[in-house]
């Protein structure tokens, strides 16, 4: 459990942040300058709040009223920066041992071999950092932080310095850490793809304040938050599981509360839990069910809300078997359809519009 309620003034910038999160990955998401890194630095003890309280797993790290302010080394936190910051004179094994030796043997609760195995760095142990790729360096940095047996792992945009292929390579390892070791992670990101694949709790920040806290599916599917989640990212996120694959046609079937969603072939096991992002721009709406059409996903739904937005765009929220789908149509389309709450319609989604990055294993 992580509890943060802190205030700090940095020149003209005032930070006043309060949120609580359980286990798993808590993602701080917001534009540059919203205060995300400042929050992580205060949790780590690298910056002192003017007031407030920080509690990690029941231990008070900071309490302005009680005069408690533990030194960074006394907080038992793991910190992974944007760059690996490995010791260049040590091998990978030496860097990992550095993290482990910081902790008394009786307090070490993560095994060296377990960490190395989950991060897939067995073959790197004898290399020096200058012989590692960017993604490999970050995996070693994560391993070093884990072997310090932290109460919480702080990750400040750990993939920001990597190109797209290296990010895709590293994301499954970060997800594996969260699942395998049960250590809560506070993760700073400005990438919605990372949030989709990793986060259990999402904290949306704006101008030094918390604008919203909740589950990823809940917040990303809320049109009223699109200014914070990103207009280009507008759309719904639904929980599903892999129902099957059709290799002959390159299709994966995902079952969710609203029915079955056909998407491009995914490398996920049958039965695997997933989270699926469906962009609002990729959903068309039909009042009558169309026939003889190439669109593979035709889902029965009920209109929940219709809101006119900027640039003649209309946001339409649909109830599909208890799941919210968010579509964006033109004002011209709305004028023709006359959509209103309670109206029965069909949501049309092309299978190929749900890309690999839009489906995340859980």
Structural write-up:
This protein has 362 residues and is α+β, with helices and mostly antiparallel strands. The protein folds into two domains: 2-220, P-loop containing nucleotide triphosphate hydrolases (Rossmann fold, 3-Layer(aba) Sandwich); 235-361, RNA polymerase II/Efflux pump adaptor protein, barrel-sandwich hybrid domain (OB fold (Dihydrolipoamide Acetyltransferase, E2P)), CATH 2.40.50.100. 22% of the residues lie in helices and 37% in strands. The chain has helices at residues 36-44, 92-101, 112-119, 134-146, 164-181, 192-198, 216-220, 226-229, 331-337; strands spanning 2-10, 13-21, 25-29, 51-56, 59-63, 68-69, 77-80, 152-156, 185-189, 201-206, 209-215, 235-246, 251-256, 259-264, 273-279, 283-286, 297-308, 313-320, 323-330, 344-349, 359-361. The strands form four sheets. The protein has a six-stranded mixed β-sheet with strand order 7-8-9-3-10-11, with helices on both faces. Helix 4 runs parallel beside helix 5. The model has no long low-confidence stretch (mean pLDDT 90).
CATH class of the largest domain: Alpha Beta
Unreliable stretches covering 5 or more consecutive residues: none
Tally of separate helices: 9
Give the CA-based shape: globular
Strand content: 35-45%
Sheet/helix structural class: alpha+beta
CATH homologous superfamily (4th level) name of the largest domain? P-loop containing nucleotide triphosphate hydrolases
Number of domains: 2
CATH topology of the largest domain: Rossmann fold
Counting DSSP E segments of at least 2 residues, the number of strands comes to 21
- Helical content class: 10-25%
| Largest sheet, strands/sense/barrel | 6 strands, mixed
Strand order of the largest sheet: 7-8-9-3-10-11
What is the rounded Rg? 23 Å
CATH architecture group name of the largest domain: 3-Layer(aba) Sandwich
Ends apart, CA distance between termini: 20 Å
Instruction: Summarize the helix and strand pattern as letters.
Output: EEEHEEEEHHHEHEHEEHHEEEEEEEEHEE
- Overall pLDDT: 90
């Amino acid at each position: 459990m992580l509890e943060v309620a802190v205030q700090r003034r940095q020149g003209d910038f005032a930070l006043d942040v309060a949120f609580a999160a359980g286990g798993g990955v808590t993602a701080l998401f917001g534009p540059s300058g919203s205060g995300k890194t400042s929050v992580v630095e205060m949790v780590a003890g690298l910056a002192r709040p003017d007031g407030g309280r920080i509690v990690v797993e029941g231990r008070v790290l900071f309490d302005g009223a009680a005069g408690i302010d533990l030194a960074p080394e006394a907080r038992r936190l793991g910190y992974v920066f944007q760059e690996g910051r490995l010791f260049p004179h040590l091998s990978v094994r030496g860097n990992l041992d550095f993290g482990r030796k910081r902790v008394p043997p009786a307090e070490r609760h993560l095994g060296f071999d377990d960490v190395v195995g989950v991060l897939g760095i067995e073959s790197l142990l004898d290399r020096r950092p200058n012989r590692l790729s960017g993604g490999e360096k970050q995996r070693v940095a994560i391993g070093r932080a884990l072997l310090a047996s932290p109460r919480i792992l702080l990750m400040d945009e750990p993939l920001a310095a990597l190109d797209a292929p290296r990010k895709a390579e590293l994301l499954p390892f970060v997800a594996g850490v969260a699942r395998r070791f049960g250590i809560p992670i506070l993760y700073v990101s400005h990438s919605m793809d990372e949030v989709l694949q990793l986060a259990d709790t999402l904290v949306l920040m704006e101008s030094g304040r918390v604008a919203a806290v909740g589950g990823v599916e809940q917040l990303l599917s809320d049109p009223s938050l699109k200014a914070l989640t990103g207009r280009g990212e507008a759309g719904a996120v639904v929980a599903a599981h892999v129902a099957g694959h059709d290799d002959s046609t390159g299709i994966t079937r995902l079952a969710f509360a609203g029915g079955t969603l056909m998407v491009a072939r995914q490398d996920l096991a049958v039965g695997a839990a997933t989270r699926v992002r469906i962009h609002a721009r990729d959903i068309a709406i039909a009042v009558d069910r169309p026939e003889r059409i190439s669109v593979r996903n035709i889902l029965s739904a009920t209109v929940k809300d219709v809101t006119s937005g900027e640039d003649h765009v209309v946001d339409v929220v649909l109830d599909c078997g208890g799941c919210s789908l968010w579509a964006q149509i033109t004002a011209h389309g709305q004028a023709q359809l006359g959509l209103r709450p309670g109206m029965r319609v069909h949501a049309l989604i092309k299978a190929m519009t749900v890309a690999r990055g839009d489906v995340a294993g859980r």
